[in-house]
Amino acid sequence: MEPITVNPLTTAKPMLEIIGIDKFFGRNHILKNCSINVHKGETVVLIGPSGSGKSTLLRCVNLLEPVDGGAIFFGNQEITAAEVVPHRIRQEIGMVFQNYELFSHLSAAENIMLAPMTVLGMSRADAHDIALELLGKVRIPDKADAFPDELSGGQQQRVAIARALAMKPKLMLYDEPTSALDPEMIREVLDVMTDLSAEGMTSVVVTHEMGFAKRAANRIVFMERGEIIENATGRDFFGGDVSERAQRFLDQILH
User: Fold this and answer.
1) In this protein, which residues make up the domain named ABC transporter (predicted)?
2) pTM reported for the whole predicted model
């Protein structure tokens, strides 16, 4: 299948610049001099063995983990600078986790409405309109009044995606969003993510779903032991124009 067509990249300067990031947990060197650029409209997929640092890298971008070296720029701002207020940056960076983390006492619509109302000061009526629009975008328009325990795992994850989109982020981060799902629910979440990529949403995705990577990724970044081993276009990566180590990993995943 040919990769999807995404919006043309219109700026020379990357939206996201990760420059020489180092991260330690105690004596464990988790990220080692990691550098990635992500341009507006790109979908970049991070792959690699478990424990290679992929999720930690995302958490550093979303300022959930402090870096121990290097810098991260989002637009023209160094977001790893000491004076940065993390919650203000997160208003422009949406993140979807492995677990849906929905509020069980709130309906799907209310989960989506909460941040626009409390953070942006949006009226309940306007937030409700946005929630209904986003539930349509993630293909569950009839689930507005359903509570999380009335939804399948795939539906809950799509509510989580809609909740992130409600803040109108410039960048979306996905940390293995289908890893907790049954196989039959994975496709429905990946289809929504593919739609968003096709519409030009800038995204960085940690996943083992190579079908999604083939369809949606502009670039594939292969990590191992905290290092970036490969940074290639989707066409080159799946066409075999990669290192022997990356090819072995790909063969294991595909076969």
Assistant:
1) 16-250
2) 0.92
CATH at 249: 3.40.50.300
As a whole number of Å, the CA-based R_g of the chain is 18
Q: Which residues contact 210 (CB under 8 A, 6 or more apart)?
A: 47, 238, 250, 253, 254
Strand partners, 71: 19
Strand partners, 173: 95, 204
Domain that residue 225 falls in? 16-254
Q: For 111-164, what is each residue's pLDDT tens digit? A: 999 999 999 999 999 999 999 999 999 999 999 999 999 999 999 999 999 999
On whether residue 125 sits in a domain, the answer given is yes
Whether the Cβ atoms of residue 29 and residue 190 lie closer than 8 Å to each other = no
- Cβ atoms 147, 107 nearer than 8 A: yes
